[in-house]
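Weekly modeling sync, notes
Attendees: S.R. (lead), two postdocs, one rotation student

Agenda item 3: backlog of single-chain predictions. S.R. asked that every request posted to the team notebook include the full sequence so nobody has to chase files. The rotation student volunteered to paste the first one in as an example of the format we agreed on. Action items at the bottom.

Example entry:
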Amino acid sequence: MTWSELDWASLDAHREQFLGGKPCDGPYWSSEADLASYDLTYGERIGWKWDAVLDELRLRGWRPPAGPLLDWGCGSGVAGRRVVARFGAGTFESLSLWDHSPVAISFARGLAAAQFPGLAVSGATRGELSGSEPIGLLVVSHVLNELPPQALEELRGLVDRSRAVIWTEPGSREISRALGSLRDSWVGKFRVVAPCTHANACPILGPGNERHWCHHFAAPPSAIFADSNWMKFGRRAGIDLRSLPYSFVALDRDWDGESGLSRIIGRPEDFKPYVRLLNCDAGGLEYLSVMKRDSRPLCKELDRATGPLVYRWTRNGANITGASPPHR
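Predicted structure, as returned to the notebook:
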């Protein structure tokens, strides 16, 4: 697929489907050309979100458990490919792909097999999904607003069979809060790797925090802003290429993470005398400030940050006086 060959009618239809958020009871991928157009454009943008998620997991010192990798609801397979590329094909026994659409499974399998020739890549069967074999790592990407209740229950069953789970979604309020509710239902069975720095109930879902939602922003590659194809795509699609909001949760049954860390929710806000941020940690959710007269380098770092906003703060009440990254 090249930029000149993009099927805009297909891309527009899929964008309308995704934005509409209606439950999907069956396949909506019609051809490999359909998937190729998506993979080059919207799929690549989802890949940048996965890059941000995987950057954070690396920052926190996490690695996937041994065993098979299952990409559920794979679409063009971008999530599974990003995970294998980051940790190496030798990390996983195999890559299995499942989607409502057999065309999508075939397309995703072909791309993954070509990129990782030494890895066993296959399409998952209904029998495998309903079985009892353990799953090493389950990855799920951008499906929550489309899942009918029965499909969500089936997916819960796969989570129960997994050693670890990475689930990434758009950064909208409704979807993020729904993912947070799922996360709370798994605390106790799993340990939370990220974005949370604690295993308490999600404070955003608590009383008084209804206006908040747990979301973050990925940084697209800077080179796309000098790429005429991406510029034309952004204008034609009517999207801001700079904005990549996402939400996610990463779970691991055996995780032993670093304590005392904080995670910034959303983006820090820059005011003339200070930077304000919404902080989440084991103590809950609260607004903190960094005074520019006291910590100008930190204020600049927060304003220009393109990576995960995870820190160990030094504080004086609600004022941050210093910061360090995770030790791992």
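Discussion: group reviewed the output briefly. Residues 3-252 form a domain with the Rossmann fold fold (CATH 3.40.50.150).
Action items: rotation student to repeat for the remaining queue; S.R. to check formatting next week.
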